Sequence to fold (259 residues):
Amino acid sequence: MRTWCTVDTDDLRHVPSHQGHPTRSKEEETLPDYSQRLQEGFRGFKQWMESNEIAVTVFVIADQCANSEFVSTVQDLVATFGERITIGCHGLTHRSWSAWSKDTEGFSRDLEQATTILKKHFPDSFRPWFRAPAGYISDWMAPILSQQAYTVDTSVNPSWLVRKKSSPSRAMVLKSMASNGILERQWKTRFSLPTCGPAQHIMGLRWNARQAWKGLPKPLGIEDLHCIEHPEHELTTVYWHILDHSRKNQQWLPPIKGV
Ligand SMILES: [Zn+2]
Fold:
């Protein structure tokens, strides 16, 4: 067993409390296209990458590419770390799809646009791998991913705590992914509790989450990247956010052993 390390590039303006969700999002002030916090996060992430040999998939929200400095930052990562960086799709605008009513046309249009943007800016690093914004995934999204040549989805958090994010149910999402030929890489849990993303920081979850990550199997290196698309390779999948690297004066590190 090996570990697939992934990070999401969400900026402050993308969190569900700010946008993309029918009930969680509240009107607030306009936030920058590319915040200082996220820029600090990228600096911390780059330092961490320099300290190890791990291959990391970066899930990018395509609307961030409207900012040329953001594009330069990610292109610099690719230029610096080469094949160690692969780019996946984290949506066009971070819309929480399964929290809204079914909208196959909207998702199809957004996915196509996002894919075009990501391929244009990161042609050698882009992979047809998808992560649903905020983990809101529906069974009807699978055929659209398949039509647009996606091979891997990593949106499902198999924790009972967030079971409502999969629509109409987690079992139906998994079934639909499988029948559409999309390989689902579910997120790491421990004692059926979340360990990824915010769980690394939320009181009540973080102790368990950190323990889980300290015991992770060896992360994938560039020679192992083929494993991600092949179901015969069982992987443990974890994700965190670039923004996390802005914590503690850019000294925050994912608690992954052997780094
Ligand atoms: Zn996100």
Observations:
- The first helix runs from residue 36 to 50.
- The first strand starts at residue 2 and ends at 8.
- The two ends are 17 Å apart (CA to CA).
